[in-house]
Amino acid sequence: MGFMSSTPTPHLKRVMVFIDGGYLRGILRNHFGEEFIEDPAKFANALTHLIEKIKGESSFAPYSKPEVIRNYYYDAKYLPKEPEYSEKAEYFEKLKDNLPKNSSIDLKFGRLIKSGNKNEPRQKGVDVLLSIDMVVKAFLDHYDVAILVAGDDDFLDAVNVVKDFTGKRVVGFYSPKNTSKRLIESFDYKFPRLPTPLYNDYEP
Fold first, then answer.
1. Which three-class secondary structure state does DSSP give residue 160?
2. Which of 105, 112, 122, 140 could form a disulfide linkage to 76, CB 3.0–4.6 angstroms apart?
3. How does DSSP classify residue 133?
4. Which among 73, 74, 67 has a CA at the least distance from the CA of 145?
5. How far apart are CA 68 and CA 46, in angstroms?
6. pTM here?
7. What is the pLDDT of residues 118-175, one digit of tens each?
8. CA 103 – CA 117 distance, rounded (Å)
9. 122: part of which helix (H) or strand (E)?
């Protein structure tokens, strides 16, 4: 009689990462400073570092081999009519150029709209774009596990739809100080590791 192992055979878990750029920039701004965020090369390196750390984490997929197949980064651009459009567009082009060619990072954009008494720029459509992608790709069976790097309570409905109607898992990588408690509670696996310890060994 052959030896029978009690350990399940590892199977592949397809993972997609969804990153709210405004959320990540806010955390890194507080940690490294405004000058760091304004440098597209430094920010690209920090974004790549985060994804590599996430790829190295396997405790959310016991008895499985997680494979990160795509990373989505969501941010906002000014409309072409705004005077800041060219500068911001150039920033994102440089950001894209500084990302590793084999990183599988897709950049997606909402809009920056000036509003309020101070005419300050505000993101529009970013949360909706991320939520739609995460939900639609779950229903299309493009992934088994979604990793969400975000903190806004507005993502709660998308997380619940993915979990309740598709059976997919949603994992959160977040900063406890900058994240909705209800969103944290909705995650299947919780990693309160931003900005540390994920950036403890990072040198800007």
1. helix
2. 112
3. H
4. 67
5. 18
6. 0.91
7. 667 778 889 999 999 999 999 999 999 999 999 999 999 999 999 999 999 999 999 9
8. 41
9. strand 120-124
For residues 47 and 24, what is the distance between their CA atoms, to the nearest angstrom? 9
Domain 15-191 belongs in CATH node 3.40.50.1010: yes
Residue given tokens 């409905």 in the structure block: 157
The rounded distance, in Å, linking the Cα atoms of 47 and 8 is: 34
* Cα separations in angstroms, 82 against 62, 78, 111, 126: 49, 6, 11, 18
Domain boundaries, the chain: 15-191
Rounded to an integer, what distance in angstroms lies between the CA atom of residue 69 and that of residue 66?
9
Token digits of residue 44: 């690209």
Q: Is 56 exposed, middle or buried (0-12, 13-18, 19+ CB in 10 A)?
A: exposed
Beta-carbon count within 10 A of 144 CB: 21
User: Quick check: bond before 195 cis, omega within 30?
Assistant: yes
Distance CA 84, CA 141 (A): 39
